[in-house]
Structures are given as structure tokens and as C-alpha cells.
Amino acid sequence: MKDTGKITKSICIFAAVALGLSGCGSPLDPKDPVSLTVWHYYNGSQQTAFDALVDEFNDTVGKEKGIYVEGYSQGSVSDLEAAVRASINGEVGADSMPDIFSSYADTAYEIEQSGALANLSEYFDEEELTQYVDSYIEEGCIASDGTLRIFPVAKSTEIMMLNKTDWEPFAQDTGASLEDLATIEGVAATAKTYYEWTDGQTPDIPGDGRAFYGRDAMANYFIIGMQQLGVEIFRVENEKVTVNVPKEELRRLWENYYVPMVKGYFGAYGSFRSDDVKTGDLLAYTGSTTSAMYFPNQVEQEDDSYGIEYIVMQAPIFAEGEHYAVQQGAGMVVSKSDKRHEYAAVEFLKWFTQADKNLQFGSVSGYLPVLKEANSAEKLDQVIGDVQLEVAPKTYDCLVSVFGEMDQISLYTNKSFRNGSAARKVLEYHLSDQAAQDRESVEKAVKEGQDLEEACAAFVSEEAFERWYASFCDALNAAVGEQG
């Protein structure tokens, strides 16, 4: 990853030096194996890949050391979180707490407050932790004393994916270029051109232009967009958060998402933007690296379907902004129990994050490996050759694209804080819901005979921005609440 001006060492590394128990003898006995349960949210090919690695561990290192792992998918992320909370609260019918479970930082932070998570710093020395990407380790240091509670097992960032097949005739006719898509402002301008170009293809039907672009994860747009503009929207110090919402920077976010959404240049129709590419409603989107496998092979419409090719690109940033990209993906946490189970859990996590094992998982799922040495196309190619992996071209191209950008980008995720999940929901839905609602009003006005600019005027005015800004700030501050 890009050096942002100083070499940052994770506080967890120093905590491990001070608290490390890794020099103690192993509490494991192969003649009396420890059984571990792992709860996760992997499904489909991700679950298949995870289960295969668990089986390999049980047959090799686990058998040698006396560890047996069983993995259970809880369905979705929300299902997993609900199951964990039910276990912690001792609800009737709830299963016992698993030894290991997947968790995002905000949820893990809440659980840590109840004292239910093991201190992982006790099981690593400095040399071990320095092998992992520094920012991944830092993200897991959510305890009040700075020790490690979330262990990174697979991460992701955002990329842009483009329908190359339908892009080419548009670019040829209008002069649009891929270079224009490097910035968020360039994407907005290109989307306007695309809308007008498609509208012009049916001159007898005014106002039927099509959207060009959409994005998943609006919260990332706010957190990373503001970071690119030099503002940390959630600044956390001493477990207290300060919300930073300067009007000038938020206006740029509003102008480059809400305005093109209301005008129909951007769109959001299905559950994910890859769905919208499949139906031909969008040409491009910004989404997680894990979405690459879902980018369609063809556009399917009511009366037609045809194959498409794709292009993987770096996610656009704000013009003249800093090259920040989101760091996301759940880690694994270990339930606080006894040294024998905690030690065994960490042994499995160390094995699972070895370069070859981690890349086997990532090459199927689109997740990035967590060891520094594993984040390269050369290492990926080596693992593919060594274990004869079959990797989908889209996933391979996505991973290689990100690996090639690592030296130019800085990965960022905000620190965890109380009510962080509620605050993130405001970022996720406040602006996007407003945009969807107002787009419906614009479409109705256009159908009634108004031209697009006339129909949009009241929604894209200075007064409209001021109303949204005040409402947004109120909602965000209410979600964060008292931090004392």
C-alpha cells in the first residue's frame, strides 16, 4: 500500500511485545483434540472453498496438533450477527457461542464491550504481526488498551467494472474515453453524455435516456469520498467520536451522486449494481472486489440477450483528491474461553492466512489476502500453478488489477465507535433514499410534458442542497448520540 508520509506501526504489534505469551508451551494434545466451531456468512463458491480448506487443515496440521474445526454458515451477515447476539444474551433456543466467528468491526466493537472476545495479542509476537498488512491489523485493535480482537482473514476494496461491449460504440460516437472514468466528476460527466446519446437514439420519445453508472455501498462513498477530500468524517480518539461534516466537501458528494441520480444519469434498480448491468440498465458500477464474480457474461432483456466483455478499472476518486480506497471485509474473532481453545483457534487462523491457503480462498471469492507477501500477481500465479487452481478470469483480472495499484493507493477504514452501525446506516440510506424518491417525481414530471431540466430544477437548487444538508447532519448526529 501507498506510504502516506510515515511508516505506521500497529499499536497491536507493541501490545503483542508487552503481553505476548507466544513463548509459552503449547496447551494442545493430539491424543485429546480440541473441537472448534466456526460461524461465518460464506455461501456458494465461497463456502465450498472455505469448507475445503477446513477439511485440509483437519487432515494435516489439525490432526498433528490436536485441533478439529467445523464450519457453519449462518446465511447472511445479518443472520450471523443475530445468532451471535442471541448466544451472548442467552436467549431461549440459541446455540452456544462458537469458538470463532466472522465479524465486521462495528459489531465486534459492541461485543467487545461485553467482554466476550479473546485478547489475540497474547498469541502473537512482533515478527508474526509485521507479516500482515499493517492497516488490517490496526483495524482489529478495538480494545480500549489497544490490543488485537479482530484477526484479518480476507479483505476487499472497491473496483469499477464496465460493460466493454456496449461502451465501445458509445465511445466511438461521442469521443468518451476510459481516462474520463478515473475521477468521480469524470464519471458524472460521461454519464450525462451517455444519457443524452441514448436519448437521441429515439428522437420521437423525449426524456428516455438511460443511466450509465451506479454504485454499491453508499456509506463507502461518504467515508472514502470525504477522506479523498481531506476530511475524516468520523474521527475517533479515546473511544469518543467527532463527526466532521463540512458543507463544501459534502456539496461535492451531493453534486456528484444525488444530482446525476435525480437526472437519470446514474441508476440503482436491482439489489446490486451488477444486477443492473445484467439487465442493461447500467454500463458501469463501483463495487467490492468480491462482486467481480457476479459481473454478468451477457445482458438479458425481455426481447433480447447478448454476450458482453468487461473491463476492470480502479475505482474513481474525486478530482485532485488523495488516492484513498476503502478497506473492508469481516475478520474473525475468537470467543473468550480458556487458553486451550483460544490457542487452538489462533493456530487455525494462522494456518488459514498463510499465503497459499489465503490465495486459494481469495482466488475463488475475490477477497484480498492479508499477508504482505501474498499481495502480488506473481504470488497468485505461483499458487495457481502449484495447486492447479481454476480461477474465473473476472476474479483473476480483478485481483491482479488491485495488486497492481497497491503502491498508489492508501486503504482506509474508520475506527470503530459506539453506535457506529447506526451512523453507517445514515450514510448508506439518507442520500440514496432521497435521490430515489426525487427521481420518481422527476420521471413523473417528464411524462407529463416537462423537459428534464425543468423537472429537476427544484431538486438540484441551492435551497434543496441546504435542506438535505441540515437533515443529513441532524440524522447523523442523532445516530451517533452521546459519546460520553
What can you see in these coordinates?
This protein is α/β, with parallel strands linked by helices and 484 residues long. Helices cover 46% and strands 13% of the residues. It contains 20 helices and 14 strands. The protein has helices spanning 11-19, 44-59, 61-65, 77-88, 105-113, 126-129, 134-139, 164-174, 184-200, 218-228, 247-255, 258-263, 273-278, 339-352, 355-365, 377-387, 393-405, 420-447, 452-456, 462-480; strands spanning 34-40, 67-73, 100-103, 158-163, 213-215, 234-237, 240-243, 284-288, 298-301, 304-307, 310-314, 324-326, 331-334, 410-412. The strands form 5 sheets. The chain has a 4-stranded mixed sheet. Strands 5-8-4-11 form a 4-stranded mixed sheet, with helices on both faces. β9 (298-301) and β10 form a beta hairpin. α10 packs across α18. 43% of the residues are buried.
Unreliable spans: 3-11, 16-23
Number of strands: 14
Helix content: 40-55%
Structural class comes to: alpha/beta
Q: What's the alpha carbon Rg, rounded to whole Å? A: 24 Å
Widest β-sheet, arrangement of strands: 2-1-3-13
Summarize the structure.
With 484 residues, this protein is α/β, with parallel strands linked by helices. It has 20 helices and 14 strands.
